[in-house]
Amino acid sequence: MTRIEITLGLLATIGAILVMGLIGATEEGRMAGAARGFTTRSVERGAKLFDGQCALCHGPNAVGLKCPPLDQTSGLHGGKNPGVAWRLEEMGWERTMLFEYIVNVVSNGRNASTRPWQWKGNRDVGPSTESLMAMPAFAQANNGPLRPDQIRDIANYLVAFEDFLPEDPDEAKAFAAAVPNKVSSFDDPGLNQRPDGSDPVALGAFLFTDLACATCHAVEAASPLVVCPNLSTIWTTAADRVADPAYTGAADGEAAYIAESIRNPGAFVVSGFVNGVMPATFGTLPDADVDALIAYLSKGAYTPLGAGGAITATAGITATAGTTATAGTTATVGLTATRSTTSTTAP
Amino acid sequence: MLGSNTLRNLRSNVAGEWQRIRDYDWLKWAAGVGDYVVRGIMAGLSAKELRAILRGDVPTERPNPRYRAQVKSFMLHLRPKYYQRGSTWFTHTWRLGWFATYFFVVETITGLILMLFYAPTPERAYGDMLYILSNVPYGKFMRDMHRLGAEGMVAVVILHMVRVYFTGSYKKERAFTWFTGVILLLVTLVLSFSGYLLPWDQLAYWAVTIGTSMAEAAPGFGMEVNLLLRGAVDIWAGGLLRFYLLHIFLLPLVAIVVISIHYYKVSREHSISLPAVVEEGDMSPEEKRHHEERIDLIPNLIIHELMLTSVATFLMVVAVATFFSAPLEQHADQAVTPLHTEAPWYFLWLQGMLKLGSKQLFGIVLPTLIFVVLFVVPWIDRNPLRLAKRRPVAIGIGVMACIIMLVLTYMGTPRYGIETPPAQDILSVFVPQTHPGPLRELPWDDLHTAQTPADAADTRLKRTYYVSYPVGMDQDPQYADRDKYVFVNSLDPADPAFLTGLPPDLADEPDSEFLQLLIALKAKVEEQPKLIQQTSGAPKAVVTVEYIQPELKWVYAAVFWDEMELDREKDLTYMIPFTDYELMPDGSVRMDAAGKPVQLEPAKSKKVVFDLEYGAEASDGTRPILADPRPHLKDADGNAIYFEADGTLEVTDAQGKKSTISLADAMPNIKPSKQEEYLAIHRDSQYHH
Hints:
Structural class of chain A: mainly alpha
CATH architecture of the largest domain in chain A: Orthogonal Bundle
Oligomer: heterodimer
Number of strands of chain A: 0
Structural class of chain B: alpha+beta
CATH topology of the largest domain in chain B: Cytochrome Bc1 Complex, Chain C
Helix content of chain B: 40-55%
CATH class of the largest domain in chain B: Mainly Alpha
Strand content of chain A: under 5%
Radius of gyration of chain B: 37 Å
Strand content of chain B: 5-15%
CATH class of the largest domain in chain A: Mainly Alpha
Distance between the termini of chain B: 86 Å
Number of helices of chain A: 12
Number of helices of chain B: 26
Distance between the termini of chain A: 89 Å
Largest sheet of chain B: 6 strands, mixed
């Protein structure tokens, strides 16, 4: 009996080791399959969540409705479609960060549309919606309905529209042309021409939208947007900031403070907000544009002194501009350039 | 001090020393050192002796070093030196106590490994499960082993108690051991249940929500207990952390302490009971002596236990490698209540009891009573005899209790006593919430959509399958495009008519799993008597399949029907419009400014019930409705008020005004209803096995 038990025990031990070895041999493939399975199930859930939460504004299957399309024809995947600009590039994000970009926008919402002449979002029904966010914040952390994993599901679903896009650029071009219900979010209907600059406040208002400042910064005191500081009282706040002993920047006045915040956002970060959220690409803005923005944000309290303006005269600002950009004087760079090229190549 | 002689003789001294070193029996020395080390670790057992033990041989030294080891070794001293032969019968103990310990060890090892990759927060827990399953080598293996071990431990502990009861092994000096055993049963159940929540999926979340809500029903302190367990009004971060700490710290600690007490009593005080036939049966003295002989723990029982360990581990590994897979549902969601929340199998009896009546009585009082009785069984049963035939009452009660538990367990399943709307029932077969289900498990390519877009404006490829539809709809020219509109017109794919409803791409494969599924759906919808064809002429069951991405299809399944309301007694009900008007003091009806009678809110209809009397069951299983259903209303007390022979009935409204209602105005009590499920299915979601 003992002999039988010893034999049985040995056989079972060897058997268990063999089976575990077999599991180990196939483990890599199994894990890869499981990972792919979980991602695609996330796409499935994302499709369903999109249908329930997003399709009302962005259209069924993300083809666009009162808000822009987000499918394969949109700028989200635009870089692969000739003639459509990369949305990420326009917003100052790395091209490879589509997933993170979507998670960010869905979580935090958008205060104002970056293209209000085309997509108004929730602000489409007159002055009563002025203080509404164009796109509400969906994260539960922002009092929205969605858990973090659900937002990732939606991002996975939108990223999966890539499956439509051919890798080859020529094929991609043919593909883009063959999609009949294509709605590009980057068609500038000419309704929003850049003002000539004779009225700095008007030019500032244009730039505030055109440079997408409004997506994060609210200029209405009542706005629920909390992602970035509310700028409704920035002119009076700026004076306090500069006077504050905790202030670490180089500015010596309200205008200089605002200019510094635009060109070098990391110079001073308001308590409660995170450094690095605001793109550093504005360091190369021409002086005249910065002047116009200050005029707009100060609600007319600040008047630029004409060519060169007060800005270049401020010591602090010259230093800031110098640190952030060497091409400070090149006429238009960055975002504005992207858009103007797009509109010339667009059919 | 080195003298000159030493120097002079150095050469020969070194040579001599070298010779000595060379001649020395190093092998023996090494064996001696090895033996010393082995003996030091193994409580005096030499390597040779260990080998003999593992081969089942007789001791190599005298006196028997194995007994000495049991005194000196901490691990071995926990075990008795010997058992009586009778108590080691396999069919006496079934090794259930041993298996319980084995599973406890398996759970500890696999649990510790799983803990490395798990954080008990709502933000991370579910993601960590996915991580374990997709990024940790042997992660799925460990999780499945842990789950299988948990199920095994609960089952074994319950069986252990049943065995001890039926062999009468809880009597006399073993009473307290029984008592600690019942504590261990409770600890095992709660240990398993507390682990239930940790994956943070729907199954876990709702099972535990219901479990803790039972505590709420406890009189007096229910609210406090519930709060203590959940850490908040609802289970969230606080509750998860509490269940985690219960699961990995408090309960294992209690288990280890109580197991120690339980086993100490067995090993030092009263040992495992002898079978009753040996103790009380009429055996010859020789036979009896044979069964009372001592069997040494070392080597016989040690080898047996090693064998059991190997075989049990082998079986578990094979089960996990082949068929057993720990379930993981969708992420916990407070907003989505599952259709059926099923307790783990070992608590189904409790769920079954809850269906019998009040939460207080059946959820708290009776279960507590059951455990109180279990605790004191040895003190209730004063009969000192152990043979089954000498304790018929105890055996009878035990058998009854087992049967009642099994029946309650069955009653705990959703099959018993829960009536879901039939359409929901039907759809939940095809698209269940708790597991992938047949629709998700279809091969992806089987889900055929249209081959051509609907029109230039709508380029999506979409096809509608009419599963159950009004007669003639498939002949309607509006639906002639078989690429877009497919009709499942027969329950038999071999029926030649079947193909006429299909487009060419499906007609090639009438046996495809997808078509089989549609046929099954058609059968279910058309066989359900409560689903009446819509009066609007719309179809009853529809499935659409649509491409939304190259690798993503959108499947929508819906059942539409007009529900004929049947009341609790399955009688047919009709509604008769009946309006209460506001009356003036003189008895006339008050008119509003527009000259219309002012209605009392709410305006209601009277429900007319036709008592349906059913005839004997016909051969096809249906029961004909007998004539003269005796239409009546029900008064406030539920008593029937029958209509006159001429079909009228005088009723009094809220203001005391009498009016006559007529059966001629009765309308069937129909409400249009819809049940739908929609889901996206991805090519690579790996539901299909």
